[in-house]
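Explain this record to help learners:
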Amino acid sequence: MKKTALVLEGGGLRGIYSAGVLDVLMEENIKVDCIIGVSAGALFGVNYCSKQKGRALRYNQKYGADKRYMGFHSLITTGNIMNKEFCFDTLVNELDPFDYDTFKNSKVDFYAVVTNLKTGKAEYKLVKDMRKEEDMEKLRASGSMPCLSKPVKIGNDLYLDGAIGDSIPVLKAIEMGYEKVIVVTTRVDSYRMKHKRRPYAKVMYRKYPKFAEAFINRDKMYNNTLMEMNRLEDEGRILVIKPTRLVKISRVEKDPNIMQEQYDLGVSDTKSRLKDIKKYLK
């Protein structure tokens, strides 16, 4: 079988769509050789490797409104919109335990995309063992939103949200040699990112001008990637799964019913594409 990569876009709680997609892939025993996850795509994508169907939806619905999890309370008390202690310790070790052993023994190469503050470029960090603090920090960095999170140190460098450097790393997957690439996006087909001036970026990241520039010009990178994806999809080189309708869901959504709607859309969209997926991978 040809090597297959699964590319997962982020988008905060919009990523619950991808969780629905992944759960159907698990149900259908559709296997891939690699996952490249960005932000929420990385945070939810690990559950595919740990074979924990339904986990991402479950803990978000249960704890989404918990002030310890994600939101303004965490931001003002810890400096991070996602509470490090709760999300990356209490949740994964006590409240809804992550299956570290199954993840570690998975044959899937898992990459979390992060953005280097000094260079403003995306880096693709291999995550092998989530029990190791550095690997957990790679995931945390991938999902650390600019302006709403403190930079995460990995080795000697500082990192933030992978979406700033490479929102949908489909070209990276091809560059890495994967012949079949399934891309899961969290925006409807008509979406194009609008330019935002973000004058505050140059102030907040004055020590990191390349990161500030990448942040300000993210729309160009994102929209150019969409153009490339359309070309690659027309050529039959990639397969894209995307929301077939818009669900009005916030990046920090608290309503479990809206989360369920977004998740169910991911499930139904993937089930409707199963023949296409299997034919593409055959």
Summary: The mean pLDDT is 96.
